[in-house]
Amino acid sequence: MNYRVCFVCTGNICRSPMAEAVFRARVAEAGLAALVEVDSAGTGDWHVGEGADPRTVSVLEENGYSVEHTARMFERSWFSRLDLVIALDAGHLRALRRLAPTDEDAQKIRLLRAYAPAADGDLDVPDPYYGGRDGFEECLRMVEEASVGLLAAVRADMEGRVT
């Protein structure tokens, strides 16, 4: 059975598709693409059906990541099929915890930057939507940094299930 991870931000056009693309690349580099499914969604429906923000796509492509994305909204029923739900900031964490049907489902929700060793106590990935390109580049840096620790945690969780 595959391990399933879903990244969640507000509208699913900036941070979560970026995290999805970066983590999917890390999973592939680790040779786990056949075992780990990576997805993303938003807490709201503002951008459902749209592609990723052009600035997200540009920053990702310039850094060697590919992105094919259609925005969608996270649904409560998804908890039963997911192993980890990764929130991009504390607001998403709270919204997802309110949606979680059970305590067990709520335990699946984590902040992405909790996996970043250099995070300085502020575990939010700031929303770059209303700013300039530098915000998207900073978002990518934070996502890349946290993806290393997230991959290690997923790997450990997968190994723990096998034994």
From TrEMBL:
Domain Phosphotyrosine protein phosphatase I, chain residue ranges per copy: 3-153
Q: Does the keyword Hydrolase apply?
A: yes
Query: InterPro entries, alphabetically?
Result: LMW_PTPase, Ptyr_pPase, Ptyr_pPase_sf, Tyr_phospatase_low_mol_wt
Organism's domain of life?
Bacteria
User: In the UniProt record, does the keyword Zinc-finger occur?
Assistant: no
What's the EC number here? 3.1.3.48
SUPFAM superfamilies in the record, alphabetically? Phosphotyrosine protein phosphatases I
Give the UniProt keywords, A-Z.
Hydrolase, Protein phosphatase
* Pfam families (alphabetical): LMWPc
Family assignment from sequence similarity:
Belongs to the low molecular weight phosphotyrosine protein phosphatase family.
The name this protein carries in UniProt is protein-tyrosine-phosphatase
Organism, scientific name: Streptomyces phaeoluteigriseus
| Lineage of the organism | Bacteria, Bacillati, Actinomycetota, Actinomycetes, Kitasatosporales
